[in-house]
Specification:
alpha+beta; four-stranded mixed beta sheet; 4 helices
Length: 115
């Protein structure tokens, strides 16, 4: 088992790409192992690391099927339903709150305001 070649930031040779770069080209790693490593130095901390894959060994992205589109729509709809009041919030509920904004921050009642 050999060590991965390590390149400095912006100095990787042609023929290598990160996952995001592959995806923008309509490709995916397709089960290939990491071919190289890219490091960006930082002050006072360890370097940022990005893994590189060979473009020639990458495979095309699988197309979305109707079932996958339906599952994605169902999952996104579930992220909009408030577990407290069971209504569609109209936006994705933040995980930090865990419920819609009206449930998380209810309006004080009128009797408490006048007192």
């Amino acid at each position: 088992m050999g060590a991965l070649p390590v390149y400095r930031w912006r100095l990787a040779p042609d023929g290598y790409a990160t996952r995001r770069q592959l995806r923008s080209q309509g490709l995916r790693p397709g089960g290939q192992p990491v071919a190289a490593q890219l490091e960006r130095p930082r002050r006072r901390r360890g370097p940022l690391v990005a893994y590189l894959y060979r473009i020639d060994a990458a495979k095309p992205v699988r197309p979305m099927t109707a079932a996958k589109w339906a599952a994605l729509a169902k999952a996104n709809a579930a992220r909009r339903i408030c577990p407290q009041c069971r209504r569609d919030a109209g936006y994705v509920i933040p995980p930090s709150l865990g419920m819609c904004t009206p449930c998380a921050f209810p309006e004080p009642s009128l009797e408490l305001r006048s007192a």
